């Protein structure tokens, strides 16, 4: 009876066992995420070739590919992408810096929390798009408006995750720090930062995702260049292929930036002492 | 007893439906038009009059045909999408989105003109902008890809300027008003909606397409989908006849006041509408003919769209226009003499 159970447990444990060759897992990790996009592409091709949807609404994949190559060749994508990247970069830096500072303050200080938390929660409830009409009146439609909207979108998840990440640090860690009489700065660098790195970085990555959403929203509303504007322009020209090309560019860029942040997080994780 | 009555009702309605089928009536005719961004289920120009005064409904009296009217805040581009989604049979919208839709393979045919709309230019009151020429070096907002975009370029041309002389900003109406108020742009080119800014003292009018004439005004067409027209030629004829009767009614000056009141339902304030058509004969504005002038306007706008890379291929205008319905309607109503045919410059032709 006992041996029987043991055998089963062994069987269950096999996939996680390091003795197994790693190659098939690597293949899986590389290929499985492509399965759903591949299926979607097939369905798209089928819908286009069978004429289920008007070609003006959903152009065939090869039409989108042709446009993509064309826009890449004539520099339209690069020019618009550079503008968008500039906006994302500034907005993200501003939002992340303010977000981290505010989040840390909320996390470590009860006083700051008492002052700011309810106000911030109320402000966070207003979606970015709700700020636009009033911000246009104050800042006009120039770059400032776009960068502020993006910064606000980045700020929210970073504040929430940072504050929560710090609050969730096990009491024992902080107790130890107090017993060791660590100075506030040392306590922050040696204890708080490493222990909250995971949630803080989730916030940063989430913030980047929100930055892309905000970017497209502001570029669709009040811009004359950028990837979001390219999509609006595509809609006005009734060339849905342009819109889809824009979606693909934004999707790929967002994915690449998210991966880059993940790599930064892992590098930082290796640097800081483990608290396991 | 109840069952028999129910069965009888089913049979009768079945017969009516079959009858409708036999006569070639569609179950419903769906109209779409450009909205004014105020979220009102009413529009402007001929279609709004034909709806408001029941001219099209009269044409279908005694038939089972139902009519529905929808006005799109997203204007032309949204109407193109609705046609592609098979949600509309007839649509009244601006020439530029007409062209963009057709060039991208949208199966529309042009059955009549919706008349023309006046284009206005307004500037911040503190700026020394007195005419179009003063726009040189300034930031100008216009909704690109709409007929306003075309009219803007026409007016630039008419004043010896090119696109290189101004900074063009593509903004939707609501954002234009905010941007002008905030000082982000110096001037806006748009429809009579802009006059409400003037009435609030936030802008001054420095240009109206009346300055140049009908050639610089906004224009567009009422289109029918190819499949509807082929399947229901009689219904198409009746719709066009209703539209021509609406245009004829508009031409009587004693109806002007009532027409303006009908148009205010769209959300555009009365003073704006009054000023839009002040000093011009509505009969000239709402000429429904597909004549040399109308076709040449389209030829111009197609060339413009190609220049601006709005469309990738040209359009065969002969294939696109379907003047037979409006001509027949004029015959049937005895209105051939009501509107003269015009030459390419909008001058009436003799005879």
Structural description of this entry:
The complex is a heterodimer of chains A (276) and B (351). Chain A is mainly alpha-helical and 276 residues long. Chain A is built from eleven helices and no strands. The longest helix of chain A is centred in the C-terminal third of the chain and has 38 residues, at 184-221. Chain A is globular and about 70 Å long. Helix content of chain B is 44%, strand content 17%. Chain B has helices spanning 2-23, 45-52, 55-59, 75-84, 95-103, 147-158, 173-182, 195-199, 226-231, 233-250, 256-264, 270-276, 282-285, 292-307, 317-320, 324-332; strands at residues 28-34, 66-72, 90-94, 108-117, 120-123, 139-142, 167-170, 187-190, 204-208, 218-225. In chain B, strand 6 (139-142), helix 6 (147-158) and strand 7 (167-170) form a beta-alpha-beta unit. In chain B, helix 5 crosses helix 14 (292-307). The mean pLDDT of chain B is 88. At the A-B interface, helix 6 and helix 10 of A face helix 4, helix 5, strand 7 and helix 7 of B.
